[in-house]
Amino acid sequence: MKINPAAALVAGGLTLALAGGVLTWCSLPNGPAPAGQVPRVMETRDAVALPDFTLRGPRGEFRNSDLLGRWTFMFFGYTQCPDICPTALALMKDIKAIAVSPAPTFNVVFVSVDPRRDTNELLRDYLAAFDAAFIGVSGSDEALRPLTDALKVEYRRHDEKDSRTYTVDHGAAIHLIDPRGRPVAVFPPPQQAAVLAAEFARLAAH
C-alpha cells in the first residue's frame, strides 16, 4: 500500500504532540509558555497594514491584496515540524468549527519558513490533511522578511551540516490579520480553540 508522505508526517506529529502532553519545542521569544498558563491575547494597537510582500504556494502568488476583505489567521512553521505545527493547524481547524455567527468566516494561512523542502505539492498535501481550504505559502528568506519583520517572527534552520533532515526552530504564536490587511492580535501559547474563537468573535465585532 502506498503511504502519502504528508499524511505520515501529520500522523507522526500529532502522535508526538499527544504523547508529550506539553509542547517543548524551541526557546525563541514566542515559544511555548509554561503549562497551565492562561492564554493571553496580545492586541496590536494602532495597527497598520503589513508591508508589501510576495510569496508563492500551490495556488500561485500570494500578496497583500490576498489578505483584503477577509479575516486571516496566520501561522509560521514547516511541514516536517513534529509537534507545534500540526497542533496549531488542528487548533485552527477546531476554531473554524466552533466559530459561528456573528463571527465572520476567515482564512488560515500557513507560511513555511523551510522553502527548500516545502514544495508546492507538499504544502498542498500536508494542509489537505487538516482542511483543504487552508492556504500554504513560502518563499526565500528575503521574500519572507517583510512579513517576519513586521510580525516579529523569528526562525532558524539547522541545515549547516545536513540539507535533508534538519530541524527548524520557530515560535508558536498565531497571528490575526483583519480584512484591511492589518495585524490586530497575536495569540501566544498555550492556546485553546474555544478561547481563540471567542476572542476572534469579540475582535471581529468591533
Give a topology summary:
Elements: H1 5-20, E1 42-43, E2 54-57, E3 60-63, E4 71-77, H2 84-98, E5 106-112, H3 120-128, E6 135-138, H4 141-151, E7 155-157, E8 168-170, E9 174-177, E10 183-187, H5 193-204
Parallel strand pairs: 4-5, 5-6
Antiparallel strand pairs: 1-10, 2-3, 4-9, 7-8, 9-10
Helix pairs in contact: 1-2, 1-3, 2-5
Number of strands: 10
Number of helices: 5
Which percent range describes the beta-strand content? 15-25%
**Total separate domains:** 1
Structural classification: alpha+beta
Show unreliable segments: 11-38
Could you estimate the helical fraction of the residues in percent? 25-40%
Span between termini: 51 Å
Largest sheet: 6 strands, mixed
Taking all residues together, what is the mean pLDDT? 83
State the CATH superfamily name: Glutaredoxin
- Shape-level CATH architecture: 3-Layer(aba) Sandwich
Oligomeric organization of the protein chains: single chain
CATH fold topology: Glutaredoxin
Which strand order does the major sheet show? 1-10-9-4-5-6
N-to-C SSE string, H for helix and E for strand:
HEEEEHEHEHEEEEH
How would you describe the shape?
globular
Which CATH class applies here? Answer: Alpha Beta
User: For the CA atoms, what is the radius of gyration?
Assistant: 16 Å
Task: Report what the structure shows.
By secondary structure, this protein is an alpha+beta fold. The chain has one domain (41-159, 169-204): Glutaredoxin (3-Layer(aba) Sandwich), CATH 3.40.30. 31% of the residues lie in helices and 21% in strands. It contains five helices and ten strands. The strands form three sheets. A six-stranded mixed β-sheet has the order 1-10-9-4-5-6, with helices on both faces. A two-stranded antiparallel ribbon has the order 2-3. Strands 7-8 form a two-stranded antiparallel sheet. Strand 4 (71-77), helix 2 (84-98) and strand 5 (106-112) form a beta-alpha-beta unit. Helix 1 (5-20) packs across helix 2 and helix 1 crosses helix 3 (120-128). The longest helix is centred in the N-terminal third of the chain and has 16 residues, at 5-20. It is globular, with a radius of gyration of 16 Å. Mean pLDDT is 83; it is low at 11-38.
